[in-house]
Design goal:
It contains 13 helices and 15 strands. By secondary structure, the chain is an alpha/beta fold. The chain binds pyridoxal-5'-phosphate (PLP). Pyridoxal-5'-phosphate is lined by residues 57, 115-117, 120, 143-145, 215, 219-220, 248, 250-251, 276, 287.
């Protein structure tokens, strides 16, 4: 046994013995060993390389080990590795300024959290205090994080064993491929989804609704690119009924869609924006809320009853400044847009033409889903067995996939090259062919 292979075995042994993992029954876990990475690739100790087409949890937008971000963290660690939130710190101020420079003019301040869940938690708190109302509306097809209100705002199954927050009501957002509204065109889907939402608001009592919380482009739920007019229509309903619009940009923000914020493609300005993941690609855990003028003013003379020991942590702040600078200097957001439009999108559509397993592909930038079906007519989703086989097939060919329900999400870092995207498309192609052939 070589030293490298021995390290992989030791890593697996320590992990199985001592580490308790997320969202899993612990006994049957078989996790890949990752020892290093660069750009779009990661590898184990033995040197087996994988194209990271999951960007881990869709968060490593700038790619692995970007030297400028690593250096900024090292330099900040030498200068001041930690400092409490009730201080003014230069790096923190610069990070907030850089984030605000990407947001619409109506935004004034940033509240830093440890990640995406507590960003949503605090956005909900702000909306409730600002409006004096209680109810939060969010969609069934959503994920907003794993804490008190964020997990109950989540629509998917992860909500159900965790319902200990109050005042949450769910509705259906648009999803033309599996329309809840018998729609056949994007316009119909948008109109009818808006009509449904307005009826939910009216039925709950508009004066009780504090906020509508939406992922600008629902991510884990299937990369459900909203139809034309939908987000603008939600904004209009919020204005009509005095409701705060919170857009969750945790997964879709900071370059993922080929824009700094996903909502910037949809003619809508929210009241609160939540972010995490791509803001610094997770080099240090961080998230936050970008706060509009009006909501920020609510807390000018009134105490904001919330805080975290690590709010605005200097290592996170340094990584944010470096990450946004590098993304600007190296045209990384533009790269995501171009590779999506020129390579990934056309490539996935060509796969869909050849493989009956693919019912639909959709997405933009480096944010795509392939929806796998038993039959293109009935659109019946494939089961976990098919997804499992495909996952094994592509992993053995050197690609780390992101899978959710009956889908493969094609979500590489924003720095992905044309060549890497083409190699990945070839691997998906071979994987689909092998699964269709029954092995
Ligand atoms: N919101 C969205 C849209 C997400 O995709 C996620 C995580 O996947 C979260 C919130 C929660 O973020 P975190 O895991 O950093 O708490």
């Amino acid at each position: 046994i070589s030293t490298a292979a021995g390290l992989d075995a030791r890593t697996t042994a320590l992990d199985r013995e001592y580490v308790f993992h997320s969202w899993s029954a612990q006994a049957a876990l078989d996790l890949p060993v990752i020892a290093g990475g660069a750009g779009t690739e990661v590898w184990d100790h033995a040197g087996n390389r994988y194209l990271d087409f999951a960007s881990q949890l869709v968060n490593v937008n700038i790619g692995h080990q970007h030297p400028a971000v690593v250096k900024a963290i090292q330099e900040q660690a030498e200068l001041l590795a930690t400092i409490g939130p009730a201080t003014a710190n230069l790096t923190r101020g610069l990070a907030a300024q850089r984030i605000l420079s990407k947001a619409p003019a109506a935004f004034r301040k940033v509240f830093f959290t440890n990640g995406g869940a507590d960003a949503n938690e605090n956005a909900i708190r702000m909306a409730r205090l600002h409006t004096g109302r209680d109810t939060v509306l969010s969609t069934y097809r959503s994920y907003h994080g794993n804490t008190g209100a964020a997990i109950v705002a989540t629509g998917d199954w992860r909500r159900m064993p965790n319902q200990y927050a109050r005042g949450h009501v769910h509705f259906f957002g648009p999803y033309l491929y599996r329309s809840e509204f018998w729609a056949t065109t994007p316009e119909e889907e948008s109109d009818r989804a808006l009509r449904h939402l307005e009826r939910v608001i009216q039925s709950e009592g508009p004066a009780t609704v504090a906020a509508i919380l939406l992922e600008s482009v629902p991510g884990t739920a299937g990369i459900l690119v909203p139809p034309p007019g939908y987000l603008a229509g939600v904004r209009a309903l919020c204005d009509r009924y005095g409701i705060i619009l919170i857009l969750d940009e945790v997964m879709c923000g900071f370059g993922r869609t080929g824009r700094w914020f996903a909502f910037q493609g949809y003619d809508v300005v929210p009241d609160l924006i939540t972010f995490a993941k791509g803001v610094n690609s997770g080099y240090v855990p961080v998230g936050g809320v970008i706060i509009s003028d009006a909501i920020s003013a609510t807390f000018d003379d009134r105490v904001f009853p919330g805080g975290l020991t690590y709010s605005g942590h200097p290592l996170a702040a340094a990584s944010i400044v470096a990450s946004i600078s590098a993304m600007e200097d190296e045209g990384i957001v533009e790269n995501a847009r171009r590779v999506g439009a020129e390579v990934i999108g056309p490539g996935l559509r060509a796969l869909a033409d050849r493989h009956p397993l693919i019912g639909e592909v959709r997405g933009e930038g480096v944010f795509w889903a392939m929806e796998l079906v038993k039959d293109p007519e009935t659109r019946e989703p494939v089961g976990a067995d098919v997804i499992g086989k495909l996952k094994t097939a592509v992993t053995s060919r050197g690609l780390m996939p992101f899978t959710a329900d009956n889908r493969i999400h094609v979500v590489p870092p924003c720095v992905v090259t044309d060549d890497e995207a083409s190699r990945a498309l070839a691997i998906y192609d071979e994987g689909l062919t092998s699964v269709e052939a029954g092995h």
